[in-house]
Specification:
With 614 residues, this protein is α+β, with helices and mostly antiparallel strands. It is built from eight helices and 33 strands.
Amino acid sequence: MWRVDMNRVQKKQNNKKGFTLLELIAVLVILAIISMIAVPLFMNKSVAAKQIAHNENVRILFSQGQAYLVKEKVSFPQVNIIDDMVAKGYIKEIPDNPLGGAPYIVAVNDSGVITVTPEMVEVTGVIVEELDTIVPTVVITANTLDSTSESIITYTMEFSENIIEFGTEDVVVTNGTKGIFTAVDQKIYTLVVTNSGPCTQTVTVNEGVCTDEVGNNNVSGSKSIIITALIYNGTHNIPKLVTGMTPVKWVGTTETETISTDPLWYLYNGDIESTVGGTQYTADKWANVKLVDGSLFVWIPRYTYNIKESGGTSKIWIKYSNGTIDDTSLNAANSNTPFKVHPAFNFGGKQLTGIWVAKFEASNNGSGKVQVRPGIVSWTGIGVDAIFTACRAMQNASNPYGISTDTNVIDTHMMKNNEWAAVAYLTEAIRDRNEIEMNSDNNCYTGGSSTVTTVYGANVVQGNTGNVYAIYDLSGGAWEYAASYVQNHDVPGDGVENYDFGYLVTYANSLISAVTDYKNELTGAFDGTQETAYNVTSTQTDGMALHEIADSFSLTSTFQGYGDYQSFAYSMFPVFIRGGCYSNTGSAGVFAYMSTSGAGNTTRSFRPVLIGFE
């Protein structure tokens, strides 16, 4: 049987040790230290969580506020848009500020910049980056002046910072066609824009079409350029239209109206080498317009020229000008002689980009007014004074042409020697010794026939381009008076001996009294002979198709072997006529010229010229 020795048990219990005072104090110190570390740590984590939540609220409110501005298009400034953001579904509800204090406000300033208050705070123990609220701006520039006649403009769009998701579709162009779009880098972009007529062209980057790298939407920017009447298309000066002119083209032999931007209206190929007997020139389609009465005119663009006069191997070169910028470089194919500025494009000191020349010889509309139409008998039997007056009267009040009476807008006048030559030189440059067939109609019908379909059909060979877009009646038909003469001192009381029959004063006094804009006057010390008149004036006739294509004052020209008739004007017969008539078989042509009195004659007609200034 077991027995418990209570004395021994009691003795063992009495021998068991407890905590000493020192041990208890140590435990308390340790607990205090733990409390000092743990309690602030948990407290800090709670504050940091609230700070982070607050900052996230600010970030969301800012981002959604930007989205709200882009889509809702509200006016600026706005005191607080947060209620409307809730109403429009941009945020579910207005968040509580976990930091306590003031409620959230989303304000918009005058420039459309959002501010969220209270602002972000620094998270305890965490470095917080400052929120980027700066929106990207854009400055648009052009490679031209703010007013230009350029047909192609390059716009540069430079943003204030790097942006993303920006392309040509984000650029709005008013009055122009988008071309090549280039991203130079993330800040700079370029866009090429073409235009087709006078306008105000605007390039715009709308607000919110792209963002910066943190999502800030861009603000808008734009650039406007005033496009004046276009001058140059990369090859030649484009036709200068004025009120009353309507572009026309042909479908077969049928004339139809068109618009200035129609790519089929005209085509000038320039001085492309053509073989003798070839027909490459027929690809040229010179610009035609008609006036309200149906009169037709053809555009001659400004150019420089170079001539080699060497009989059957003669040649004319031309270079179209860019506006009034002329190429006067040396022609290596002609002993390095320079290209010359053609004088037809200088109208009394006004530099012209081109001239409008009558498509046919002039005819009478039945009431004593000029008309220029196919298949009608040329106006003959009329002298220089009456021709000069009739051409100037084309812009009188109540004229049938629909053109302005303002001489600052348009001018009408009788063709001069240099204007005839402007047509002749350009004709030869594109044809290269392929002579125009003459108008042999002995009734002097314009275009060589009384039937319009024949004029625009079989008779296109009588036109200088060999097609319906040509200028007709340059060879044959009727001789054409030019507003050009040799001065013979046939002026009473001027003290200079006369060598004439009084023809200049009698038949062409209008030329004597006209300003230089309207005439080519040749002057010098004359002795009454044709040879002296030719020799004395040799330095005065550049661009007139006289000395430059002739080697004598009479007989026939050796130029290109055409055999065109030549008889230089002189004191007795002081006025020039051009082109030959229907009876001059073999000697009529664009380089034919003769001297005459200036009186009316049944084999003499004329041709008007129009100049547009605006």
